């Protein structure tokens, strides 16, 4: 229906000026190195269903010729908001984001070298746009990239 009515792009953005799904990874992925980072009340089955739904949305968009972009506005919440994710701190948001990106990329059959993972995680943790000509970063949907 969207493609028939000339919609050709679907952007799904999380954590835009809200604490909802900030960061989103604990809602989709279990990162064993960070057992303290979790979503209260979210079971492993719930997390699995969340990831399956995200994958379904992405695949359905592709099947219908719609460009799907997953965006994460912020990885950490603003200081005046109550987090929905437990265990996130200023000290662990960068390393956690790096580990989550690595798992997400591996599940997609992609890989970034360790230095690129750290660069991407740092940009995501501080909400920065990465300015680069390195095309490897285009595979990280949640990363804002500007190619000069």
What do the pLDDT scores average to? 82
Q: Any low-confidence stretches, pLDDT <50, length ≥5? A: none
Distance between the termini: 36 Å
Total domain units = 1
- How many H/I helical runs? 4
Helix-strand string: EHHEHHEE
> How many beta-strand segments?
4
Q: Given the helix and strand composition, which structural class is it?
A: alpha/beta
Computed CA radius of gyration, to the nearest angstrom: 15 Å
Portion of residues within helices? 25-40%
Strand order of the largest sheet: 1-2
Largest sheet: 2 strands, parallel
Shape descriptor? globular
Descriptive account of the structure:
The structure is a single chain. The radius of gyration is 15 Å and the shape is globular. It has one domain (9-146). The strands form 2 sheets. It has a two-stranded parallel sheet. It is built from 4 helices and 4 strands. With 148 residues, the protein is α/β, with parallel strands linked by helices. The longest helix is centred in the middle third of the chain and has 20 residues, at 44-63.
Short description:
The chain is α/β, with parallel strands linked by helices and 148 residues long. The chain is built from 4 helices and 4 strands, in the order E-H-H-E-H-H-E-E. The chain is 35% helix and 11% strand.
Features:
single chain, 148 residues, alpha/beta, two-stranded parallel sheet, 4 helices, 4 strands, 11% strand
């Amino acid at each position: 229906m969207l493609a028939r009515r000339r919609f050709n792009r679907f952007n799904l953005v999380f954590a835009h000026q809200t604490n909802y799904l900030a960061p989103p990874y604990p809602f989709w992925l279990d990162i064993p190195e960070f057992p303290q980072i979790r979503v209260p009340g979210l079971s492993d089955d719930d997390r699995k269903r969340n990831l399956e739904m995200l994958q379904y949305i992405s695949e359905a968009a592709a099947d219908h010729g719609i460009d799907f972009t997953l965006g994460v506005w912020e990885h950490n919440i603003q200081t005046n908001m109550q987090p929905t994710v437990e265990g996130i701190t200023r000290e662990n948001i960068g390393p956690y984001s790096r580990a989550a990106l690595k798992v997400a990329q591996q599940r997609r059959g992609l890989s970034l070298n360790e230095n690129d993972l750290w660069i991407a995680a740092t940009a995501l943790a501080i909400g920065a746009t990465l300015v680069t000509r390195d095309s490897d970063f285009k595979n990280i949907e949640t990363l804002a990239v500007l190619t000069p």
